[in-house]
Design brief:
- With 106 residues, the chain is an all-alpha fold.
- It has four helices and no strands.
- The radius of gyration is 17 Å and the shape is elongated.
Amino acid sequence: AVVSTQSGHCGRDTFENVRTVSRKHVQSIPKLCDRALKLLQEGVLVEEYVLDHIPKLMTFLRECNCTLRWMMLHTSCPPPTKKCKQLHDIVMSHNVSVTMTTPSIM
């Protein structure tokens, strides 16, 4: 996500966009984990099932990849500036609530 406007400053819209996107990704994590757990059960991902459901599986994998990459990108490094710290804090405030309710895949 691009956090600066043409003038180089974060605007109010930027913070609201980050809140919206963060909320969307955080809310999708439990659903994605549940679906992944169902797919990873013994005997589900057999050759016939995978070949018959390639489009749905690929869409699901893309959604997982997008959410995982977004969360990693926006939570991994300490923010270097005040504005980045504000954006990081927005993401982390949504992230804390999902950590307690997400089942472990491992």
